[in-house]
Design goal:
single chain, 73% helix
């Protein structure tokens, strides 16, 4: 027992150190670029720094590819667990927000920039807290169950296919939904009422997601206690926000991204909602996977089937009545 606890503590400490040092190459590179830009005129920069100066989006994607896709993939392959991308999903948008704000070509309304960066920090703190609470305050205790399932599915090919399935695919999604952060820092348009609407949607999304995750955490913790006591588990969470939606945490998360997209829409980049749309479609697919997983658990399958019949999938709404349907059958 003592040996197992010691090994867990050692693994936790090792993963914490790895995750804290992992993004440093791109951070140091970017800070070096900014220092060169501050010390010289754009025309006198070396070819490398000049390219970084004129291509902020390409630079962001290059750093993502080298530092996240390749380095995180290499670490995950060595550890046989691609856990770190889940943690950094909560951090990368904050890094991108500050990256776009600090770039020499950045141009923005100061208040809109402060508002968006503050909101991004609020979202990140909420999601990071949820991640560590779910993982019992451990670093890299496990990888996402979807990756574990794919590991079994791909077998010996997983070591190379994981680069595409786990990392490159998420780069497309993450950079896509974070495009509004770039737009906010590329135009100096006066703040208006639509910015406040966008901010309200973002805050509502973060608040809904926080309470939904907290209710889910309490439910899971209660079932874990019942399991330790040898008592019957509660088959389904059907209270609080979960009474009105089967996935209120997903609904809140989507509100956040659509609110962020509205900032870009307000700056006349209306097509930037595509990132939020694609993310919502992907989350729709994840919802199907999650519900299939629920239905495979014998102790909750019947209760969850009834829950599906009466409760909205994402958008919170009133319960459907089964009285008429039961009479028909």
């Amino acid at each position: 027992m003592a040996s197992s606890s010691k090994n867990t503590h050692s693994k936790n400490l090792r993963n914490a150190v790895v995750s804290l040092f992992a993004p440093l190459p791109s951070i140091f590179f970017y800070l070096t670029f900014l220092r060169h830009c501050s010390d010289a005129e754009a025309d006198s920069l070396s070819p490398l720094w000049k390219w970084c100066y004129h291509h902020p989006l390409l630079l962001a994607n290059t750093l993502f590819f080298l530092n996240v896709d390749l380095l995180f993939w290499l670490i995950g392959t060595i550890q046989s667990s691609h856990w770190m991308i889940d943690l950094y999903w909560t951090v990368i948008p904050v890094l991108l927000a500050h990256y776009f704000k600090a770039h020499p070509l950045a141009e923005s309304n100061a208040w809109r920039s402060r508002m968006v960066i503050f909101l991004t920090w609020v979202w990140s703190v909420r999601l990071t807290h949820s991640y560590f609470r779910r993982e019992k305050w451990q670093w890299g205790a496990r990888e996402d169950w979807r990756f574990s399932d794919m590991r079994l599915q791909y077998g010996n090919n997983w070591w190379w296919s994981s680069l595409f399935a786990v990392y490159l695919s998420q780069q497309v999604f993450l950079i896509g939904i974070c495009f509004p952060l770039y737009i906010v820092h590329s135009q100096d348009k006066q703040l208006n009422a639509w910015d406040l609407v966008a901010a309200l949607i973002c805050l509502t999304g973060v608040t809904v997601a926080y309470f939904a995750d907290t209710q889910l955490h309490n439910f899971v913790s209660r079932n874990e206690k019942l399991k330790r006591l040898g008592q019957a588990l509660v088959p389904n969470l059907d209270g609080g926000l979960w009474r009105f939606s089967r996935h209120p945490n997903y609904f809140g998360e989507q509100l956040w991204w659509w609110g962020l997209a509205m900032f870009a829409w307000n700056l006349d980049y209306k097509w930037f909602f595509v990132g939020a749309l694609v993310n919502s479609l992907c989350l729709g697919y994840v919802t199907i996977l999650v519900e299939d997983r629920m239905l495979k658990q014998d102790y909750r399958a019947e209760a969850y089937k009834e829950y599906q019949k009466t409760t909205s999938v994402w958008i919170p709404w009133f319960k459907k009545s089964l009285v008429g349907k039961e009479k028909e059958t």
